Amino acid sequence: MAALREAAAPTVGHVSRRITVAASILLLIGVVLVALGLFAGGSTNATLFKLGAGTVLTFMGVALLSPYLVGPMSSAIGWPIERFAGFPGRLARENATRQPGRTAATAAALMIGVALVTFASVFAAGASATIDSAVKDNFKGAFVVSNVDGFSPFSAQVLKGVSTVDGVQTVSALRFSKAKVKGVSGDTSVSGIDAATLPRLYSIKVEKGPQNAIQQLGSTEGVVVKKGFADDHNVKVGQTLALTTPTRQVLRLPVIGVVKDDGGLVADISVPLPLVQKSFGERKDAFGLVGITPGADQKVVQKRIDALFKAKFPEGDVKTAQQFIDDQTAQINQVLALIYALLSLAVIISLFGIVNTLVLSISERTREIGMLRAVGTSRRQVRRIVRWEAVITALIGGIIGCVVGLGLSVLFIQPLDGFKLSIPFGQLIVLIVLAGAAGVLAAVWPARRAAKLDVLEALAYE
Fold this sequence. Notes:
Blueprint: H1 17-39, H2 44-65, H3 67-85, H4 87-98, H5 100-138, E1 143-147, E2 154-155, H6 156-162, E3 168-181, E4 188-193, H7 198-201, E5 205-208, H8 213-216, E6 223-226, H9 227-233, E7 240-244, E8 250-260, E9 269-272, H10 273-279, E10 284-285, E11 287-292, H11 298-311, E12 316-320, H12 321-364, H13 366-374, H14 379-413, H15 425-442, H16 444-451, H17 455-459
Parallel strand pairs: 4-9, 6-8
Antiparallel strand pairs: 1-11, 1-12, 2-10, 3-4, 3-7, 3-11, 5-8, 6-9, 7-8
């Protein structure tokens, strides 16, 4: 074939040295920023900024250096394809490595889409695992009461009614508001808790201050703050915080303790429940935790509460711990499905990139394809060459994107206090397989076009 060609040898693309140097610098700066974010300490916002900037620069560096990965990855991916497909698989692998810059650029669009899908999948899996762990490890009650829509507040009479149900022993209400804290920009989330009943139904670890800091809120108008808020704003136990409430009242409250809430139930600042009603104007409950009498049948008590809600409080909804976990997970999955739908547009666009590259490659290799047909290559084999080349290109983008997205998610999740890392390996494998299938889909038209080339016209093509 080489002897029949007028050109001395097929052209092979090279990576610009300037691009290589720039990519190496970007990668180095990105790695340094990521290291500073992970190990240098500082506030959560500063850490996330360093990790975010470092991750973006690292991603750009990897994308620009990806042509160097094309050869090794094409060999690794193409080896089993060559064993399976034979001659078409070998030519497909060689064609993918002929222009590494073009192959990398084509795979880059798919790489970005797969990286974002991977990040969303890992983050959603981590959120589900965090909720599951938080409820099972920290919730000591039997039921969670909420609005039927899952997020709106409900009348305080609902939990008062629940407390009268036979078999219910303890009910603890939570309310949420916001305040402006002197020295802190923006609004700060505030939760109102029942200091007498919450510790019986939900575990909150006191990091600094007296171990009964939560209970002290029942007798003292003070606040407890979450560890993340205390670290970000250098808040100490005994310090007085000046809070401006939504009703324009200015409260000066001492910090009784610093707590760590792995379940994320309470806000950055927690105050006594009566204070939220009196000074913040919050008269509706956001959630209610319910504990039952020892020995009571949980299913029977839940049916009684359901009957109460149907008769008097249709806005109320009661769930067991597992039902609450399943409900929150379903909401996460709904958001994830929306994200997948949006990201699918990026994947579709990347398929057009693969189509364009294949068409250009076929145009450049018209005489080569004509000679292949002249020496006995069938149209079916030509189609298979183009298909396998598309699969190799798509798998390169899918694998690099999966690795980058996984690294991105790990880096962002690591500094989040109490957030658990959960990697859905099954979903990631399916994602890579779908990337290969996308390559097959993108190759349908170019493969048919290559197979239909007239042999004589192709050989005479200049």
